[in-house]
Each structure stands twice: as structure tokens, then as C-alpha cells.
Amino acid sequence: MDEEEEEEVSVCGGPFGVEDSVKSGGGPLLALLGFLIFPLIWSIPEALVTAELATSFPENGGYVLWISTAFGPFWGFQVGFWRWFSGVMDNALYPVLFLDYLKHSLPIFNRLIARIPALLGITFSLTYLNHRGLHIVGFSAVAIAIFSLCPFFIMGLFSIPRIKPTQWLVVDVKMVNWRGYINNMFWNLNYWDGVSTLAGEVDNPSKTLPKALFGAVVLMICTYLIPLLAGTGALESKASEWSDGYFAEVGMLIGGVWLKWWIQAAAAVSNMALFEAEMSADAFQLLGMSEMGMLPAFFASRSKYGTPTTSILCSATGVVFLSWLSFQEIIEFLNFLYSIGMLIEFAAFVRLRIDKPDLRRPYRVPLQTLGVTILCVPWDSSYTCYVSCFIQNVNSKWKCYCARNDLACCISTSEGKELDQI
């Protein structure tokens, strides 16, 4: 497998879905700053931790094995289940996004009568492709990455004569939706540890994984910034127009209809690749947990292609049942589960440095224990706040729900009393 291309598609796959960062950020400025600053706080520390621990434990199961070694099998299982469930929720997004891009050219997919069969057909066909073997995913990732990124490189070149740098500085503070902005940034910039669940399938992971992770970080930043710089600098579009799928319109305005069609096709193919990569990671995570004795042995059964059949079917079933949730609900909940899991992963990373200093580490983050603890602080602090805000938001929604029910009961009771009096 070409691990660098696989990791790039797994965590990024193109700038599709970043358009909302301009809308929720009230303009281009916060979106551009976010993709410059947040990788330093989130992506790089997570990639460094993953590189060290994935090469120290080059087995399927990844972070489940790290946490079990640091804190015991109970916490390993808990985080493994949370992360598997968040991965399945993440996968439920991609068929939806695929149809969202496709409906710009084929409006019939706005109708449930066409949308539901299409979602089921996409899920079942991609599940079969995943069942056929990882080599399909790995080799396809190379062509998909090139096909998905080329139209944005061309768009960037075409936009140069029209760019006005002052447009990059636009921000309307009153229009900023901080909740949507942070959720969008988090979803686009994290999930680097997913490759660890496939470490047992990678040739020479001690050399391949660190190179793939660091190369993918650079590619990800460029993949997001170049289209945003081109689109926001060359066009005077309102922030409210930047929603999912808007890059297709940007391509048409800058390069013509042919570029719009290319971007739409690239979006569709990229979302399919993300689905395949995520399902592979989720399925091999279950396989690794089964090999560790945390799940029944049938989760470790492999097909003649070497893929974990039962684990793939289990993940696909979860995708089908979660597809009815809204995009925003899925994003918030999977970010919440991922945040909790990553807090424990970072704690396991520090604890293993303290408790097992002699552990074989083919790649080692070039910092001592105090240094790696400081490295983890910005991530831990920001996502402790995120988890707290999520819980507070859930509580406020629950209070509103209870208040509405109480009000409805009061109205019903008062109406009943009036009827009795009559």
C-alpha cells in the first residue's frame, strides 16, 4: 500500500466540506487563519503521537493497544468502542455529501424517493469494494488524490490575475458562528490516528508511517489553503454563499463550466475514497480488538481477500442506521466522541513515556517527558473546553425540550379544566 497517499485521503481527500468555514467564520479571514493556526495545535501534535506509538505497537488495533498497555483493557475497550462508533458516524456523512454535490447537476436527488435508494446502493456497493481487499483502496487512493486535487491547482492558477489580497482580510464578527466554525475546523483537521489501526497491514511501518503522516500534514494544509485563497481572493462572494458544494460554483466563475463539472466529479470520487479508507480503519480496529480478546473471535475472521468480513458488515450496518441523522448532528456527536478518545490517547502517550522508558520506539518524538507533556497541553486544553461546551449544549437542549413538554402539559391541563367547567 502507498501509505502516504492512503493517509492523505483518509484525513483530507480534498477541500470538499471546508466551504462552511468561510460562512461560519463570517468571512475569509478566520477560515484562512484557522487552517494556518489550528494544524499547529491539533494536527501536528496528533501526528507526532501517532507516529511514535504506531511504530512502537505495529499491530492492528492501534490506539486500543496503546491505551490498554497504559491504563488496562477496560479503558482500551471503552476508547475502542467510542472511536469505532465515531468512525461509523463519520462514514455515514460521505454518501450524503456525495449526493449533495451530485444534486447540483441532478436535482432528482433532492427527493427522498431517489435519495434513499441511492444512499443504500452507494453504501452496499462501497462495502463490497472494501470487502474485496485493501489493495483496491490503497492503489485507488493514488489516482483519486491526483484526480481530486488537480482541478483546484488549475483553479488557483486561473485565479491569480483576479486576486485582490484585501478580500482575504474580510470578517464580519456579528456573522461568526463559533460553534459551527470550531466543528468544521475540527472535522477537517483531525483523525490522524486512524492509520494506526492498519499498522499491521503496512510494510515496514517504522519508516513508512512517520513519512506518510508528516507528508500528509503538509499536503492537507496546502489542499485547504490554495482553493480558499483562490476563491475568496478572486471573487467578491458573500460569506453566506459559502456552503457545502460552493467550490463547484467558484470553479465555474473562475474557469468555466468544464471546471465546475470536474470539481463535482472530484468531490464525488473523493467522498467515496474517504468512505473506503474510514471503513478499512474501523473494520481493522474491530479485528485488532478481537485479536486482543476484547471482542468475540468471529470479528477476527477474514475473507479469502484477507479482509475482516464480520467487522466490515458490522460497520456498514452502523452506517445505514445513522444515515437518518442530520449533517450537523453527526459532526457534533462524532467530534465529541473523538475528543474524549484523544484526551485519553494523549494521557496514554505521556504515561508510557514515564512507565516504559525502555519501550522500543523506532520513531521517537524528539522531546523529553516534560516536552511531550507541554506538546499535548494545547490540544488537551482546547478539547477539554470543546467537550464541556458540547455537554453544556446538550444540557441546554434537554432543558428546552423539558420546558416545551412542561408547557404543553400545562396548556393541556388548563384546557382540560376549562372543558370540565363548561
TrEMBL record:
<keyword id="KW-0812">Transmembrane</keyword>
<keyword id="KW-1003">Cell membrane</keyword>
<feature type="transmembrane region" description="Helical">
    <location>
        <begin position="136"/>
        <end position="160"/>
    </location>
</feature>
<feature type="transmembrane region" description="Helical">
    <location>
        <begin position="308"/>
        <end position="327"/>
    </location>
</feature>
<dbReference type="GO" id="GO:0015203">
    <property type="term" value="F:polyamine transmembrane transporter activity"/>
</dbReference>
<feature type="transmembrane region" description="Helical">
    <location>
        <begin position="108"/>
        <end position="129"/>
    </location>
</feature>
<protein>
    <recommendedName>
        <fullName>Amino acid permease/ SLC12A domain-containing protein</fullName>
    </recommendedName>
</protein>
<dbReference type="InterPro" id="IPR002293">
    <property type="entry name" value="AA/rel_permease1"/>
</dbReference>
<keyword id="KW-1133">Transmembrane helix</keyword>
<feature type="transmembrane region" description="Helical">
    <location>
        <begin position="29"/>
        <end position="51"/>
    </location>
</feature>
<comment type="similarity">
    <text>Belongs to the amino acid-polyamine-organocation (APC) superfamily. Polyamine:cation symporter (PHS) (TC 2.A.3.12) family.</text>
</comment>
<feature type="transmembrane region" description="Helical">
    <location>
        <begin position="333"/>
        <end position="354"/>
    </location>
</feature>
<keyword id="KW-0813">Transport</keyword>
<keyword id="KW-0472">Membrane</keyword>
<keyword id="KW-0769">Symport</keyword>
<feature type="transmembrane region" description="Helical">
    <location>
        <begin position="63"/>
        <end position="85"/>
    </location>
</feature>
<feature type="transmembrane region" description="Helical">
    <location>
        <begin position="212"/>
        <end position="234"/>
    </location>
</feature>
<feature type="transmembrane region" description="Helical">
    <location>
        <begin position="246"/>
        <end position="263"/>
    </location>
</feature>
<dbReference type="GO" id="GO:0015293">
    <property type="term" value="F:symporter activity"/>
</dbReference>
<dbReference type="Pfam" id="PF13520">
    <property type="entry name" value="AA_permease_2"/>
</dbReference>
<dbReference type="InterPro" id="IPR044566">
    <property type="entry name" value="RMV1-like"/>
</dbReference>
<dbReference type="GO" id="GO:0005886">
    <property type="term" value="C:plasma membrane"/>
</dbReference>
